[in-house]
Amino acid sequence: MPRALWALTVAGFRRYATYRQATVAGAFTNVVFGFLRCYILLAVAAAAGSTVAGYDVAQLVSYVWLGQGMLAVVNSWTMLDLAERVRSGDVVADLLRPIDPLWTYLWTDVGRAGFALLTRFVVPLVVGALAFGLYVPKHLVTYPLFALSIVLAVLVGFACRYLIGLSAFWLLDIRGVTIVWVFASGACSGLYFPLAILPDWLSTALWVATPFPALLQAPLDIVVERGGTGHGLLLLASQAAWTVVLLFVCRRVQTRAVRKLVVQGG
């Protein structure tokens, strides 16, 4: 089984490595929006007296450019092809294979994230460092915490997208669910602005009741050391909890979906 999972990860890496032009175009788009977001937040910081919601200028710059790099790694906006396979009936073949479809999609997505980390993540990081300069973490432990946080963010993002794909067993057409997800995940994950800018009650509600901050806000807060190492460990624990809960929910929903498929006659 470990060899099969490794093969799936490598296959996911190679699959996305073939889209070279898309990778270049995506990285260029991330850089363009990085400049736009960075100048907007810097203007807000200048008007507010050099800090915004506890972030200084260097932290804001790093927040933007690392966030732009993480977009493709977490990839929360691109849906899996699960829904299309459900609609076409090809999912039946997936269910007959020796490896559970949940793990097949998961490890393939890990391979995709690995390729994005080496390409789409690095480019905005280098541009941001050359154009503005980035915040350098003061504690060595921040680096492994950030790396682990990225892994958990990928897993949380995958689990959410897999659940959306599973909804096709009931809805067949998931475009409406996808639109809602794209809007909510962008606004509530810290992509557009740090969640600390929001009212305390709303920010707390997002952290406690939704997995959205685990996608981007948590890793970015960890790497810019907002709140210190202790706060970073708390964020990491929250991500780990959401990962376990969401993967468990994926497993249970898939079991119900398979029963529905059998009832419908496949």
Description:
With 266 residues, the chain is mainly alpha-helical. It has one domain. Helices cover 75% and strands 0% of the residues. The protein has 13 helices and no strands. It has helices spanning 2-17, 20-48, 57-74, 82-88, 91-96, 101-118, 122-131, 142-166, 168-171, 175-188, 200-209, 217-223, 228-263. It is globular and about 60 Å long. The two termini are 27 Å apart. The model has no long low-confidence stretch (mean pLDDT 90).
Question: Structural class, please?
Answer: mainly alpha
Oligomer: single chain
Q: How do the SSEs run, as a string of H and E? A: HHHHHHHHHHHHH
Strand content: under 5%
Count of individual beta strands: 0
The number of distinct helices, counting runs of at least 4 residues, comes to 13
Number of domains: 1
Inertia-based shape = globular
For the largest beta-sheet, the strand count, sense and barrel status come to: none
User: End-to-end span in angstroms?
Assistant: 27 Å
Unreliable spans are none
Q: Nearest-angstrom radius of gyration?
A: 19 Å
The helix fraction, in percent, is over 70%
